[in-house]
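The following record pairs a protein chain with its ligand, xylulose-1,5-bisphosphate.
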Amino acid sequence: MAILEALIFDVDGTLADTERDGHRVAFNQAFTNAGLDWEWGVDLYGKLLKVSGGKERMSRYMVDKGDQHLQDGNATLIPELHTAKNLIYSEMLQHGRISLRRGIRRLLSSARDAGLRLAIATTTSRVNVIELLRHTVHPEGLSWFEVIATADEVPDKKPSPAVYEYVLDEMKLKRESCLAFEDSENGLMASQQAGIETIVTVNDYTRNGNFSQALLVLSDLGGPGQPFEVMGGRAAGSIGARYSYVSVELLRDLQRIGQSHE
Ligand code: XBP
Ligand code: MG
């Protein structure tokens, strides 16, 4: 039986609530700066989030609204808007406008202390991850992660399992030795298809998703005196009553349960 060796984290929505008050705001600012009248409200953005990747999201939006720029065949518009959005998003991070979700820093630190290996598997751009880690986790936050796999290394975006398979390959890890952390249906599909047991921490955009394949579905990671809410998952019955926040001990237990269910 494999023991727990590594934790693999999604970024947007999992490490931090980056979407509604981060990427969305930065997209809108980039649209305005480019003289476009596009406006992504909170609800519309929730629907657009079904499409992984900022460039793909803009393409879908243009197709859905039959945007005139499509007829013009302007091939550079989307990459230009995406670069501009990421610059604005970086500035938001530098100004401390986005913080980590509850329990993330505590869990990362205790996992490091326990000798667990850490990695990132995301569909966002590398620059966004680097800025997020630097400004929210720790100035040296990048070095906490052995592999940081992003859309730059793996263009095949979630729900494709490619980014998780890349991490397993790079770290020479067996899927049974890892746990993944995700917040969305696309993310869970990716980790599941790579055969990695997954803990889902929901957020406002994802709490009504179908996470029946997850090992555990939680409101968040919780903390001492700040209990999580167990919302489902195959191990909910065994874990729910014994723990009130996600610790390395809980994760070791969970990984054992995951293997015994196989
Ligand atoms: C989330 C995404 C990304 C971000 C925006 O990725 O789908 O597209 O919304 O980032 P994950 P980009 O949850 O896997 O971290 O504009 O760089 O795509
Ligand atoms: Mg996510």
